[in-house]
Amino acid sequence: PSYRSLANTMATQAGKKEKEPVNIVHQNAIMCETIHKEQRHQKLYTDYSINPYKKMYTLSGKPNSTHDSEDGEADEGFLKIFRRAQETPQQKWSTPQTSSQEIGWDTTPLIKAPRDDRRLHRPRQNSEITKYMDAAWRLKEQTENLN
Question: CA angle, corner 27, sides to 22 and 30, nearest 5?
């Protein structure tokens, strides 16, 4: 192939890459269709409340404020859901709901462990070395907290 034939083919390929002008009618039809789909599947929520499953931090109000001390109506439905969310799984259900809950479901000991039985109770024993290191760690923590 000659140089001229390569140049001609490149020129025709460059001419094909030109964009077509934007068709406003088609763009408007696509936008209308999108809006109709959104409106068809949209739900309007007007009943708002606090998420009972999220940890809440309450702060006390100002001491002389009148609107903080006013008593309002208690929403019994929300209070019921909130109390249920604060319960442990053992309080909510009598049996485990999943296989993962089966592990550790019964936390009560099978036998009462007496403190004087050396087989079941092994208290912490300190030697001179452990007493020294406990004091050293305590001193280190105190100096770090002061800085």
Answer: 150
* CA angle (61, 62, 67) in 5-degree steps: 70
pLDDT in tens, 63-89: 777 666 566 677 788 888 888 888 988
Query: Longest Cα pair distance anywhere in the chain, in angstroms?
Result: 104
Q: How many CB atoms lie within 10 A of CB 105?
A: 13
Quote the Cα angle for 4-9-15, to 5°: 125
pTM: 0.38
Q: How far apart, in whole angstroms, are the C-alpha atoms of residue 101 and residue 89? A: 9
Site of tokens 């739900």 = 43
CA of 81: how far to CAs of 51, 72, 88, 128, in Å?
Answer: 10, 19, 13, 55
Give the Cα separation of 142 and 91 in Å (integer). 41
CA-CA distance, 130 to 125, in Å (whole number)?
9
CA–CA separation, 84 and 77 (whole Å): 11
The CA distance from 85 to 52, in Å, is: 6
